[in-house]
Specification:
Blueprint: E1 2-6, E2 15-19, E3 29-39, H1 41-47, E4 64-72, E5 84-88, E6 97-101, E7 105-107, H2 114-118, H3 121-134, E8 142-145, H4 151-163, E9 166-171, H5 176-182, E10 186-189, H6 195-202, E11 208-213, H7 218-225, E12 227-235, H8 249-258, H9 264-270, E13 273-276, H10 286-302, E14 309-314, H11 318-326, E15 333-337
Parallel strand pairs: 8-9, 8-11, 9-10, 11-12, 12-13, 14-15
Antiparallel strand pairs: 1-2, 3-4, 3-6, 3-15, 4-5, 5-7
Helix pairs in contact: 3-4
Length: about 350
């Protein structure tokens, strides 16, 4: 099989395509011939040596795939060879063949392409966990979504629409028109506007009910100040610590130093909640999360959820894919294709 390896810590050009033996299926597992693999910001941080959960470099990363099952292990029920599926992968997703636990796998609805299916697992499970499982999003509430043009941002918008909530988003100005076409009620240019002031202006001083923030550092503090009473802040990344193509210790230190501590009395007196979400730390809880994924896939089949795939890069251009995502040029999901 072919795989994309992080050969050494550094710039995107450290990504290399290598050959390896096909993995063999074991009990309780299925083997998938991968059609598309998702690219996520965690992969970029792993390449830079900035993601503590990643395997030691050299390694193969990748959290999600879509493809066709070609082997079913003993003890597996509900799946057959030839099934079109999507799946999480605990790294190793940048491969043309993967073996995964059957509990991580879900059948792709007939009307959905494998390309769209590959954009589902990480982004939609992350948004769902924040908004629905932990956030108990209610009709009529307002959600502030940072990095609104990314995969999680678009997933969050569609979940808000399904729940009858409204969303406002931060993004560069060039993405605003498309975001508003998709349904964002208001867009804020994070480069030229103060998002705190814009949120308070848009909400008449009340604030928002939920904030989704992947930026880290001082952004968490400012997002917290945007919350209305009963508001919930969700932190799901430290993207602000990534500056340049290689690990920048000063940028990382600055983000860590400016990351706020939330005092219990502040939370109590303001009637606010602060949550952290990291899907990479939930693999042992997938049995509990399976109903969430089943509902996501059901809504995908109905067309209620519809991933936006920006670009598909072949394995040989994995470095270009990382550049594209790291430069924030994407609108929606970036995929790799064996």
């Amino acid at each position: 099989m072919q795989q994309v390896w992080i050969s050494s810590k550094g710039a995107p050009e450290t990504l290399q395509v290598r050959e390896a033996a096909d993995p063999q299926v074991g009990a309780g597992q299925v083997r998938i011939r991968v059609a598309f693999a998702g690219v996520n910001f965690a992969d970029i941080q792993a390449r830079m040596g900035q993601y503590p959960d990643a395997p030691p470099i050299p390694c193969v990363v990748g959290y999600e795939v879509a493809g066709v099952i070609d082997q079913v292990g003993s003890g597996v029920t509900g799946f057959s060879e030839g099934d079109r599926v999507l799946s999480f992968t605990r790294f190793g997703g940048y491969s043309d063949t993967v073996v995964v636990d059957a509990s991580w796998v879900h059948k792709v609805p007939d009307a959905v392409s494998l390309e769209a299916a590959a954009a589902i697992p990480v982004n939609y499970a992350t948004a769902w966990t924040m908004l629905i499982r932990l956030g108990s999003l209610q009709p009529g509430e307002t959600v502030l979504v940072h990095s609104a043009g990314g995969g999680v941002g678009i997933a969050a918008l569609q979940i808000c629409q399904w729940r009858g909530a409204s969303a406002i988003g931060t993004a560069s100005s060039g993405k605003h028109a498309r975001l508003q076409e998709l349904g964002y009620a208001h867009c804020i240019d994070y480069r030229s506007q103060n998002f705190e002031q814009e949120v308070k202006r848009y909400t008449g001083g009340r604030g928002v009910d939920v904030v989704l923030d992947p930026q880290g550092g001082n952004s968490f503090r400012r997002s917290y100040r945007c919350l209305a009473p009963l508001g919930r802040l969700f932190m799901f990344g430290m993207a602000g610590s990534v500056q340049g193509e290689r690990l920048n210790p000063l940028a990382l230190l600055r983000e860590l130093v400016t990351t706020p501590w939330f005092h219990p009395l502040s939370l109590l007196n303001n009637n606010r909640g602060v949550f952290g979400t990291n899907m990479g730390r939930l693999f042992e809880e997938f049995d509990r999360l399976a109903p969430d994924m089943e509902e996501i896939v059901r809504l995908l089949g109905e067309g209620t959820l519809a991933p936006v795939v920006d670009r598909v890069f072949p394995f040989a251009e994995a470095a270009a894919a990382h550049h594209y995502l790291q430069d924030r040029r994407n609108f929606g999901k970036v995929l790799l294709q064996p």
